[in-house]
Amino acid sequence: MDKSKIGAQLYTVRDFTQKPEDIVQTMEKISEAGYEAVQLSALGPMETGKLKEVLDENQLRVAATHRGFGSLRDETEAIVEEHRILDCDHVAIGSMPGEYRNEEGFHRFAREGSEVAEKLARAGLTFSYHNHSFEFEKFGEKTGFEILVEESDPDLFNLELDTFWVQHGGADPAAWIKRLKGRIPLLHLKDMTIEDGEQLMAEVGEGNLNWDAILESAAECGTEWYLVEQDVCQRDPFESLSISLENLKEM
């Protein structure tokens, strides 16, 4: 894993990306922290061409985006054009829409998600699904996540595996990375720590996840982008992103 394959997931700093002037300042801070790429998520309104200019001014590549499933399904041409301007090949959804979060819904989403992934693939984009922990609820002998993995198209339906949420769901991130070899172009990195019996998100390397196993598995299984994300920070989120990056460099 080299530095150019590590990106900052901007959901981490979503409170600082809602106005154009704040987006500009945030990109400057991300670049100054040493990141060379970002995943676009939870940004306020900014014309795509202008956003690309801001990114270029700060030598930041767009590793991937997060878009709603409805937009990917119903506004595919606009999504494709946006990614062409951003020079970005990867698009992911941040979460499964609520109406699918039941046993029948997992089966249905595996099918419908694959159909959307095929539309995007025809335009040169990859589709990835970002997990939380609710997918690890069992329905009979299988979890919802297993249903998604086994019933979706393995050539089109990728997974943007989130290390914290896999662990939160009681599963092993490294084992799942190995099981999904070739289907994880994007990997979300966040750590887990325990305070007063509560599971908290932490900077990479500051918690209890087995990073040697996780990163070794990702390197073996074709992960392209390692994206640092921390939904909830116990300190300034820009400081959290910097700590995670420095720890990753030492690993």
Summary tags:
251 residues, alpha/beta, TIM Barrel, 8-stranded parallel beta barrel, two-stranded antiparallel sheet, 10 helices, 42% helix
Strand count, sense and barrel status of the largest sheet are:
8 strands, parallel, barrel
Structural class: alpha/beta
**What average pLDDT do the residues reach?**
97
Count the E strands. 12
- For the terminal residues, how far apart are their CA atoms? 9 Å
Tally of DSSP helical segments: 10
User: How many domains, in number, for the residues?
Assistant: 1
* CATH topology descriptor: TIM Barrel
Query: What proportion strand?
Result: 15-25%
Q: Which regions have little confidence, pLDDT < 50, spanning 5+ residues? A: none
**What value does the Rg take, in angstroms?**
17 Å
The top-level CATH class is Alpha Beta
The CATH architecture assignment turns out to be Alpha-Beta Barrel
* CATH superfamily caption: Divalent-metal-dependent TIM barrel enzymes
Shape: globular
Widest beta sheet: strand line-up: 1-2-3-4-5-8-9-12
Order of H and E elements: EHEHEHHEHEEEHEHHEEEHEH
